[in-house]
Description:
The chain has helices spanning 47-63, 71-87, 89-100, 104-125, 165-178, 193-205, 219-228, 241-251, 276-288, 308-321, 340-356, 387-390, 406-414, 429-438, 473-478; strands at residues 13-15, 18-20, 27-32, 37-43, 133-134, 144-152, 155-159, 182-186, 212-214, 234-238, 257-261, 266-270, 298-304, 359-362, 377-380, 397-403, 418-419, 421-425, 443-446, 461-462, 465-466, 479-487.
Amino acid sequence: MSHPNLKLPPLKQFIDGEWVDSASERTMETIDPATGKAFAQVSAGDAEDVDRAVKSARLAVEHGPWTKVPPAARSRVLNRIADLIEARGEELATLESVDNGKPVTAARMADIPSSAGVFRYMAGWAMRMEGEQIPLANRPQGQFLAYTQRAPIGVVGQIVPWNFPLLMAAWKVAPALAFGCASILKPAEQTPLTAAALVQIAQEAGVPAGQLNLIQGLGHVVGAALVGHNEVNKIAFTGSTEVGKTIVRSGADTLKRISLELGGKSPTIVLADADIDAAVAGAAHAIFFNQGQICTAGSRLYVHESIYDKFIDRLATVAAALKTGPGLDPTTQIGPLVSEEQLRRVAGYVEIGKKEGAGVAVGGDAVGGPGYFYRPTILTHVNQKMRVVQEEIFGPVLVATRFKEIDEVVAMANDSVYGLAASVWTRDVSKAHAVARALHAGTVWVNCHHVMDPAMPFGGYKQSGWGREMGAAAYEMYTESKSVCIQL
Ligand code: NAI
Ligand code: MG
């Protein structure tokens, strides 16, 4: 055990308000990516545990107190969850760093406050499950009263990834609870810790038994059981495009609602008139934040030819100066990748890029030694056909290309199976709007990148996903609409 003083949450299943072992009593290891050593054993569930959790969630959603109490009471519980996340912020940031590898400083600044922020925002929506009164078009006025009512979508299976374990759990659980759904949360097997802490916090804040269950375990076991279960009304998934497609296929049997936040290959576009200092810092943040393990990573850089050479020089200098080290070291800027598998995947892509003819402006190899560290990397001399330009790498690897005309860069930016996000760097407000309008992406940032907010809908075009989370879009995602028509 490499972390004897770490305060761990219960690493069991949470079903019907109780922490229990899995039916099989199997466990799995969780590994510290900075050392490659296992430091905790976590209960590993299977279809039987999922079934128990679904039964409890079904009871909660049909007969539990959560959908009967005044909405303001639900809202208060969500705010209490936010308070407790903030109160336990330091502990949660440490757990996140040890489990995922990310710098503890980043977890403190981003993951923890953003997670609390989602609960605070959704606390407001708990009191806004409003419908509409509808004047019927083809009936005499005054003879009918028609209105829509919003109802919780029911039991939701929420499958989250390892890159922002607490925040992705918050993105899922907060709207589910706000709109009266009962959730079965399935964390990634690589990062089980903070989801368990969140569930503990929710219980302490007053979420009733069955309303939020937690099943730890492997994706193709626990995740697949949730997707296949006929009593689960909806699956909300964040993860790989490949698994997203599997979920759509197997979810078809029960026609359950499915929302997907999948991969990306988001362009960072720097126009000739950009503020260069801001754009260099922004492009670095876009690709290197969270070791590049973020679905909105600005992983394709397009720079106007008039400033390209200078820009790449400066960006390479920034990349080379980033301090790589264990996440718990407060001076670390780049932590290890999450797993050996991810390190292999990233290193493999850079080798593919080299074979395809790419040049390496900086980085291009692993740091070596224990832990899964990879150097911030910029590949140049690439073209749109190369795999490193088309496929999601999900690591600190940027591919850089020059362009001449705006139409040309928009075409290259849109030449992707993905369409999650993009950023445009320019001082020209007309060009900013024109490019934002032309891009096929769920989010377009201008002179910033990775700015996410619970009030702003988030999701992707094309193979980046189905649906939008957050903001008013979350309301559509977690409720069913019912038309009620009364003859007066
Ligand atoms: P993954 O898609 O396998 O894992 C994400 C979640 O899905 C985890 O909770 C996992 O347990 C679950 N899962 C896996 N197989 C499942 C199945 N058959 N049915 C239901 N749930 C299942 O992603 P993985 O393997 O960890 O990473 C592979 C690549 O996926 C990354 O290199 C990256 O390109 C992409 N990815 C994208 C993320 C995003 O934020 N959009 C997050 C994580 C990975
Ligand atoms: Mg996988």
